[in-house]
Design goal:
alpha/beta, 8-stranded mixed β-sheet, 4-stranded antiparallel β-sheet, binds adenosine-5'-triphosphate, binds magnesium ion
């Protein structure tokens, strides 16, 4: 990988819940190359939004490094953070609430320019028109207000707004999950086009695995605040190396004949444990069909996986000693087909 656009190292985020601490992002580490899309998946409450918000310091991390190029966002002072925010932007799930309803589209799109750039009013107006057209909207819409647009159009406006300063990185937090299916595919196509034209890196947070596979050559999987596996999407989806990834993927019917032929299904029982009181050792062990004694005693080591990426699971070094091979290989060897797990 060339110098990453973003390198996150051991990022931790704690929420105060009454007198207790909720460790919502625990030692999160990953990299995104310039112009690359990294998908971030995991079930509801796994900490995806927390991690995304912390990257931009929209919530304060308690520790860790957030290197945007050569600058550590985590330790930046107020003035430096203002400059860094030119370079990183966020698009939220809900285009209804993320756009200020009392501002025109032109005001919404020029706001980042006024705060950050010295530009003549006529140049600003031209930049807005150009940006609107590049997201598939008429430049003449600039005088209208957000309520005059459909959900898909509003998300186009939010994307346009995020791109006004040509950022290095945009965090997209569930950018299409509030939209109907046909609008979803239009917005995903738009995001691909915008990225191809701008070279901006994306962190795509989504719980829809099919969306992430379509959009992201690389993916990171989160469980209860921790990244349990990362790697090239093709490898992670077809040959997961962590039982949680395998369970997440086997629960989704993919329109892909290769996946449908796979007999390995892991059905997860039980709910996510309370993040206020996570299991000792491996946080996934209470729902893991392969849990061993050591899983309760020690945090799992992070191992390199054949075909790319890493997984944090004792199975690779203890018990069956997978040694970086996929879980499918293990299940095939032991003739484990469909298995249902209830906790
Ligand atoms: N402001 C907050 N104060 C306290 N706890 C919070 C806060 N925001 C989130 N949490 C908790 O932190 C954990 C992670 O939440 P987060 O919203 O990051 O998950 P997520 O993966 O984005 O979920 P979803 O898919 O539902 O959006 C959850 O247990 C959640 O209840
Ligand atoms: Mg979220």
């Amino acid at each position: 990988m060339t110098t990453p656009c973003l390198r996150v190292e051991n990022l931790n985020v704690m929420y105060d819940v009454g007198k207790r601490k909720l460790h919502a992002a625990k030692d999160v580490s990953f990299e995104i190359a310039p112009g690359e899309t990294l998908g971030l998946v995991g079930e509801s409450g796994s900490g995806k939004s927390t991690a995304g918000l912390a990257l931009l310091r929209l919530i304060e991390p308690s520790s860790g490094k957030i290197m945007l190029g050569d600058t550590n966002v985590a330790t930046a002072g107020r003035r430096e953070l203002q400059l860094l925010r030119k370079r990183m932007q966020m698009v939220f799930q809900d285009p209804y609430s993320s756009l200020n309803p009392s501002m025109t589209i032109e005001q919404l799109l020029t706001e980042p320019l006024i705060v950050h750039a010295d530009m003549a009013a006529s140049d600003r107006r031209a930049a807005v028109g150009k940006m609107l057209e590049s997201v598939g909207l008429h430049a003449g819409y600039a005088a209208r207000y957000p309520h005059e647009f459909s959900g898909g159009q509003r998300q186009r406006i939010a994307i346009a707004r995020s791109m006004m300063l040509h950022p290095d990185l945009v965090v997209l937090d569930e950018p299409v999950s509030a939209l109907d299916v046909s609008t979803q595919s239009q917005i995903l196509k738009l995001l691909k086009n915008v990225q191809a034209a701008s070279g901006t890196a994306f962190l795509l947070v989504a719980h829809d695995l099919a969306v992430v596979r379509l959009m992201s050559p690389r993916v990171a999987v989160m469980y209860l605040g921790e990244i349990v596996e990362t790697g090239p999407s093709a490898r992670v989806y077809d040959e997961p190396a962590h039982p949680y990834t395998a369970a997440l993927i086997s629960a989704v019917p993919f329109p892909d004949p290769v996946r449908q032929r796979s007999a390995n299904r892991i059905i997860l029982g039980g709910d996510l444990p309370s993040p206020l009181n996570p299991p000792s050792g491996c946080r996934f062990r209470t729902r893991c069909p392969f849990a061993m004694d050591i899983c309760a005693r020690a945090a799992p080591p992070t191992v390199q996986v054949e075909g790319g990426g890493v997984a944090a699971c004792h199975l690779h070094t203890e018990g069956p000693k997978l040694g970086g091979r996929s879980l499918n290989a293990f299940m095939r060897e032991r003739n484990i087909g469909a298995m249902e797990v209830t906790t």
